[in-house]
Amino acid sequence: MQLDIFEHSRDVVLRNAAIDALRQRDAGACERSLAALAAEYGSDPLLPAVRLLCEKLNSPIPRPIARDAAIALLRETEGAVATAANNVFGKAAQEWLAPLWSDLAAAIAGYRFDSGQETLHAAPLLLLAERWSDAVALIESIASWRRQPAPLAWMIEARSRIAGFDVIWPLLAELAWMAPPRAQALAPRLSLPGLDRLVRGFDAEFEADGTPDDFAWFPAWALIADGSLREGLRLAQDGANTRPEACARIVLGLLSLERQGRHAELVESRRKLREAHPGLFARYMQSR
To answer: What's phi and psi for 138, nearest 5 deg?
Structure first.
């Protein structure tokens, strides 16, 4: 059978050889394939990306590693190296990058959590490596992790990959009250259909103030939109008792009173909700 000259041209063969060597993480084969590609097709558009990734295969991370060196390596990996991997592997880039994230996580495993430099911690690197259970164990070792936005967000992401929406719902409510912009940015990254539907409904219906903290009202709105969330929200720990949190607690109480038929207390709680947030009260009364 005659080979298609375009499909099997020399530059394609050499480029694929280099990419295959990278995929197999064979540093020697990668160097040889890279040299051949550079010698014959020095202007190949993928050559710089392949060269950078090949260099990463030949650059083990020192242990221990100084903080400045770790910061520089982290920035390089999440910047130039990640871009190169996306150019070479496309959708499979994350899979190729995972061992790099794991190696860096191991190198800085002894670093304590610092809220002023939160990315320099092994937990978010383990998330990038998709090592969910390892990330959970490490986050649990951070003192008061549930009272700090970064480790709380990391825990939400890790547990969502393991167990889904129901498990992370009370934690997400806590994060929404504690750090609304962070919770809002995290929600779509979790790729949970039920959560995505709720967020779309909230964005479409809730009369927001147009501030970065609007998402703090999401737990209360979601509870009104889907009463089945009440049992999960009971597991949310008390926060700073902000207005959005207090409002969500009022709604939670209302849903319990409805089931118990305690009319006088129900009327009083509805009054409290109306005073706390007229818009949410109106949304609540739509189905009552």
So the answer is: -70, -40
Tell me the C-alpha to C-alpha distance, in Å, between residue 16 and each of 12, 40, 60, 78, 152: 6, 14, 24, 24, 42
Residue 245 dihedral angles phi and psi, to the nearest 5°: -70, -45
Per-residue buried b or exposed e for 210-229, using 16+ beta carbons within 10 Å of the residue's own CB:
eeebbbbbbbbbbbbbebeb
pLDDT digits (tens, 9 = 90+) for 231-253: 999 999 999 999 999 999 999 99
CB 128 within 8 A of CB 161: no
Single pTM value for the model:
0.91
Contact 151, 145 (CB under 8 A): yes
Spatial separation of the C-alpha atoms in residues 244 and 230, rounded to whole Å: 16
CB 143 within 8 A of CB 136: no
Residue 265's φ and ψ, nearest 5 degrees, are -70, -35
User: What are the residue ranges spanned by the domains of the chain?
Assistant: 1-59, 164-288
Return d(Cα 56, Cα 192) in angstroms, integer.
Answer: 34
CA separation for the pair 260, 108 (Å, rounded):
53
Q: Which residues of 98-122 are buried (b: 16+ CB within 10 A; e: fewer)?
A: eebbbbbbebbeebebeeeebebbb
Beta strands of 138-277 (E only): which ranges?
A: none
- Inter-residue contact 187 to 195 (CB < 8 Å): yes
State pLDDT tens for residues 149-206: 999 999 999 999 999 999 999 999 999 999 999 999 999 999 999 999 999 999 999 9
